[in-house]
């Protein structure tokens, strides 16, 4: 399948002196289990800082699975049509990363799965949206099948060394262009792309905007 990102050049952030994003043709990391890596697009998105130094590289699934009605597809998919625990892709951090919850994540390779923030008291007001991609160490997340939320939270907590998963906040992204593009959102930087989605054999697309720099001001 041809990637929706295949022909995109370097796209700088809104600040010309800020970070940049570009499509790079590179195989998924060998740290990933073979069953995971084979689902990922070989056209990744690399994000560099204002000096051109590599920050992170993201590989998305060739086609993200969704469960939506014909009406939902016609109106435009949202993140909520992705089942929780679904594998979305993988990321490689070139150096230490600070996630949206202001947690330290070590350099390395992690899977990315979709999770909705639980509606409990200690999460109130901590993020402008409740949809996240959560990070799990590549050597611990070896089965590409969806994970039940509690099991995913436990697995992802290995990325932080604590009780909370490593998280990259998702912002709504409805723009039709494929990207990649870096957007400033609520004081953080989000990587915006549009990816292929497969829903019961039908093909469509969904915009993703995941936080790649910055963290919640409530932390």
Architecture overview:
The protein contains three helices and 14 strands. The protein has 219 residues and is mainly beta. It has one domain. The strands form three sheets. The protein has an eight-stranded antiparallel beta sheet, with helices on one face. Strands 5, 12, 13 and 14 form a four-stranded mixed beta sheet that branches. A hairpin with a 5-residue loop joins β3 and β4 (54-60). The longest helix has 8 residues, at 149-156.
Topology:
Elements: E1 11-12, E2 20-25, H1 34-37, E3 43-48, E4 54-60, E5 64-65, H2 70-75, E6 87-93, E7 97-98, E8 104-105, E9 108-116, E10 131-137, H3 149-156, E11 166-169, E12 181-185, E13 188-199, E14 202-213
Parallel strand pairs: 5-13
Antiparallel strand pairs: 1-2, 2-3, 3-4, 4-6, 6-9, 7-8, 9-10, 10-11, 12-13, 13-14
Tell me the number of strands: 14
Ends: how far apart? Answer: 41 Å
Count up the domains. Answer: 1
Strand residue content: 35-45%
Order of SSEs: EEHEEEHEEEEEHEEEE
Could you name the ranges where pLDDT drops below 50 across 5 or more consecutive residues?
A: 6-14
Summarize the structure.
With 219 residues, this protein is mainly beta. It is built from three helices and 14 strands.
What distinguishing features does this structure have?
single chain; 219 residues; mainly beta; 8-stranded antiparallel beta sheet; 4-stranded mixed beta sheet; 14 strands
